Amino acid sequence: MRECISVHVGQAGVQIGNACWELYCLEHGIQPDGKMPSDKTIGGGDDSFNTFFSETGAGKHVPRAVFVDLEPTVIDEVRSGTYRQLFHPEQLITGKEDAANNYARGHYTIGKEIIDLVLDRIRKLFQTNLVPYPRIHFPLATYAPVISAEKAYHEQLTVSEITNACFEPCNQMVKCDPRHGKYMACCLLYRGDVVPKDVNAAIATIKTKRSIQFVDWCPTGFKVGINYQPPTVVPGGDLAKVQRAVCMLSNTTAVAEAWAPCQHIQPFSSTFLLKPFFCCPFVTLTFKCLMSIIQNTALAMTALLCWISQLAALNEA
């Protein structure tokens, strides 16, 4: 099984998902109504789109995605937008009102009302996973190059430079410095005008840098994939059209920096126990449940940070 199911939740998730599916359609040559003019035979020919799209008997390509929001305003924009005919109506799930930034309201009442419907829709898309995959709890995602259209003509975007950029903090999707940790695994996915010779040379250069370290108990191999189709951009978007790009997924101990702020949960818990702002009976009823969640989260984060610290100390020893 190599199909991917996307689940977009909340205002930000729905809006980002809508933009992503517009990009996917442009890359695969799929029109806003789900039809592919280049595909003359239904169910035959190129099946590269099957990872993200499913083909109906009428030859229409439907995204393998579910959009979920507690209030209908944002998803209504998808229902009435340019790509309104692309999505299956049952995969656009909305409630009647939002949680108004109230965690207890969203977790215990309103959100609980639609969770069964969401799971049912996902269950229809998801059949079975025949190939187990090792769990990577917190993968670090990196993309390069990220440049505007104004700077596109002044940048030298060689394979070596975009590969080096993946190991710089400014290109990380998580706020952490990978130079402060050690890598356990790296996967580099290239697109565009890229040849294996240049990739091998770039990786060989990376291995010689002292600022990029790997753990001793794991091979320093890189998993590499190359898609020779150049990256596609959305017309009128902020990103420039480039000849080549790379996305890296890595497993590194430096991700502990992203969880460090969670250590401040304990002082918050001490203040929260005083109940200085409680005036609503509903909040008082859910106080014990919420405190249990906060305390369990604090314990889990503390254990995670201790484990990563011990792992880093073991590597240094």
Protein model, in words:
It is globular, with a radius of gyration of 23 Å. It is built from nine helices and nine strands. Strands 6-9-7-8 form a four-stranded mixed beta sheet. The chain has a three-stranded parallel beta sheet with strand order 1-4-5, with helices on both faces. The protein has a two-stranded antiparallel ribbon with strand order 2-3. It has three domains: 120 residues, Rossmann fold, CATH 3.40.50; 114 residues, 60s Ribosomal Protein L30, Chain: A, CATH 3.30.1330.20; 59 residues. With 317 residues, it is α/β, with parallel strands linked by helices. The protein is 36% helix and 15% strand. Helix 4 crosses helix 5 and helix 7 runs antiparallel to helix 9.
Radius of gyration: 23 Å
* Beta-strand fraction estimate: 15-25%
Shape: globular
Overall mean confidence score, pLDDT: 79
- The topology string of helices and strands comes to EHEEEHEHEHEHEEHHHH
Quickly count the helices.
9
Sheet/helix structural class? alpha/beta
CATH fold node name of the largest domain? Rossmann fold
Assigned CATH architecture of the largest domain: 3-Layer(aba) Sandwich
Helical content, roughly? 25-40%
**Full CATH superfamily name of the largest domain:** Tubulin/FtsZ, GTPase domain
Note poorly predicted spans. Answer: 128-133, 281-285
Give the strand order, joined by hyphens, for the main sheet.
6-9-7-8
Count of individual domains: 3
CATH level 1 name of the largest domain: Alpha Beta
Q: Major sheet, described briefly? A: 4 strands, mixed
From the N-terminal CA to the C-terminal CA, the straight-line distance is 41 Å
Strand tally: 9
